[in-house]
Amino acid sequence: MTETLEVKKEKAPYVIEWRDGFKIGVAQVDQEHRHLFTLVRALNLASVDQTMEELLEYVVTHFSNEQDLMERSGYPAFEQHLRLHEEFAAQTADFLGSGIEWSEDRVQELRRFLNKWLIGHIMTHDLRFGKWHASHNAVVASPSVRTTRSSRGFFARLFASR
Ligand SMILES: [Fe+2]
Q1: Where is 30: in which H helix or E strand?
Q2: Cβ-Cβ contacts under 8 Å for 136 (sequence gap 6 or more)
Q3: Ligand 1 centroid vs 88 CA: distance in angstroms?
Q4: pTM value?
Q5: pLDDT: is 13 or 16 the higher one?
Q6: What spacing in Å lies between the alpha carbon of 10 and ligand 1's midpoint?
Q7: How far, in Å, from the CA of 8 to the mean position of ligand 1?
Q8: CA of 122 to the centre of ligand 1 (A)
Q9: Above 60 in pLDDT, residue 93?
Q10: Average pLDDT across the chain, whole number
Q11: Contacts of 117 (CB under 8 A, 6+ apart)
Q12: Is the pLDDT of residue 103 over 80?
């Protein structure tokens, strides 16, 4: 009886699945956002360091691709958007640099932080770009876009210090 009660007390994992409602209408960006959700979902206590490493590498690639597309399209809010990405990097670095040891709760907290940031950012700022992109018939990014100067130095400095 006691065991049953203890099992019931366990928290359900915090999971937000990707859904089509998160699309901004730019295929490459949508595909990369979807993969970010998959990586956040994969976070668990046993492999949190390894998955976070993979996730942060992917974030760098994704931000760089998105920024490159914005810059090449002539998106007027490009600089502002770049700062939002930098803010995310700083917030993530604060979270990871807090010195708090990993636990089930801490991993849940990380997933919650990442999912909330992603959804808020995608549904506000990336969607704004998606609408602008559609209305301006902008250039579609090549899937082979690589890291740009815009974020490479910043992320390298930030994550090298972890
Ligand atoms: Fe973005």
Answers
A1: helix 27-41
A2: 73, 74
A3: 10
A4: 0.80
A5: 16
A6: 34
A7: 39
A8: 6
A9: yes
A10: 85
A11: 88, 91
A12: yes
Domains and CATH numbers, the chain: 25-160 (1.20.120.50)
- 68 near 138, Cβ under 8 Å? no
Give residue 77 CA to ligand 1 midpoint distance, Å.
11
Q: Which of 58, 83, 57 is nearest to 70 (CA)?
A: 83
Cα(76) to centroid of ligand 1, in Å? 14
Residue 148 has pLDDT above 50, yes or no: no
pLDDT digits (tens, 9 = 90+) for 60-83: 999 999 999 999 999 999 999 999
For 107-124, the pLDDT digits (tens) are 999 999 999 999 999 999
Residue 85 CA to ligand 1 center (angstroms) comes to: 6
CB contact set of 62 (below 8 Å; sequence gap of 6+): 32, 33, 35, 36
Q: Do 36 and 117 form a contact (C-beta atoms < 8 A)?
A: no
| Owner of token pair 């099992």 | 7
Please tell me the predicted confidence (pLDDT) of residue 162: 41
What tokens were used for 122? 């995608």
Write down the pLDDT at residue 115: 96
**CA 141 to ligand 1 centroid distance, Å:** 15
Ligand 1 centroid–CA 73 distance in Å is 14
